[in-house]
Amino acid sequence: MRIQIANSDQPTKRLWLELPIANDPTMSKTIGKMASLIEPGQTQVTVIVTDIEAPVPNLGKYILTDDFNTGIEQMNRLAQKISVMDGITLSKFSGALDIEPVNSMGDIQRIADSLDDYELLPGVTTDYDYGYHVLYETDLEERDIEPLEELKDFIDFEAYGKYRMEEDGVRETDLGMMRRISEPFNPERNMEMGGLSQ
Questions:
Q1: Does 90 score more than 90 pLDDT?
Q2: Is residue 97 part of a domain?
Q3: Domain range holding 148?
Q4: Is 187 contained in some domain?
Q5: What is the rounded end-to-end Cα distance, in angstroms, of the chain?
Q6: Which of 51, 61, 152 is nearest to 107 (CA)?
Q7: How many angstroms separate the CA atoms of 111 and 50, rounded?
Q8: Does one domain contain both 6 and 64?
Q9: Mean pLDDT across 40-67
Q10: Cα separation of 133 and 123, whole Å?
Q11: Is 179 exposed, middle or buried (0-12, 13-18, 19+ CB in 10 A)?
Q12: Residue 41: how many CB atoms within 10 A of its CB?
């Protein structure tokens, strides 16, 4: 993950930082690089995030320009977490960001810390698909499938799927349908929050 930062008083002075920061436990080298953003005579500088490159495609929408001021350590912790995510986990993170309310770096971190609570449903695109998924692909044992096979011509998968999607709070994302396991998502979808424009 890379973030571009700038001096808020001189936004044309920019610097790319690679995160997570390795081999700099005290962050002294990183702070030294950041010193290049300080103008002569400035005693205090506000650093802002101006761009981000990450394997989570929509992350830049949610990293607010002033999030860098919450601390490089918090941003570095997020980058460490992202660096060990596999493709499915990155997709879940991306989808959860689009559905959950995100107003701060703390919200982003909370979502990143709880990705086991989300289920991404690739291939589920309709009410029928979800009804079928719930009946056939969720915790059924072999002995339970045989009676379902006998009844499948009599089951209205579309009606059942619609009912269960509402009950389970399933939401559509750019990467497929998603649900929160512990409790359904709130009825209202997360609206676009102010962040970096992509």
A1: yes
A2: no
A3: 123-174
A4: no
A5: 16
A6: 61
A7: 22
A8: yes
A9: 84
A10: 10
A11: buried
A12: 5
Within a domain: 50:
yes
The answer to the question of residue 6 being in a domain is: yes
**Two tokens at 137?**
């692909």
- What is the C-alpha to C-alpha distance for residues 51 and 57, in angstroms, rounded to an integer? 12
Neighbours of 59 (CB within 10 A): 24
Number of residues in the chain:
198
- Looking up tokens 């512990």 gives 182
Same domain, 77 and 128: no
Amino acid in the structure at residue 28: S
Instruction: Kindly state the average pLDDT of the residues 35-57.
Output: 85
Q: What is the mean pLDDT of residues 172-194?
A: 71
Alpha-carbon gap, residue 72 to 66, rounded angstroms? 11
Weakest mean pLDDT among 14-28, 83-97, 108-122, 154-168: 14-28
Read off the pLDDT band of 190 (50, 70, 90): very low
Total-model pTM: 0.78
By CB neighbour count within 10 A (0-12 exposed, 13-18 middle, 19+ buried), where does 114 fall? Answer: middle
Look-up: residue for tokens 């309310």? Answer: 101
The structural domain count of the chain equals 2
- Name the H helices within 27-186: 28-34, 59-62, 72-83, 87-99, 105-113, 127-137, 142-151, 157-168
DSSP state of 155: -
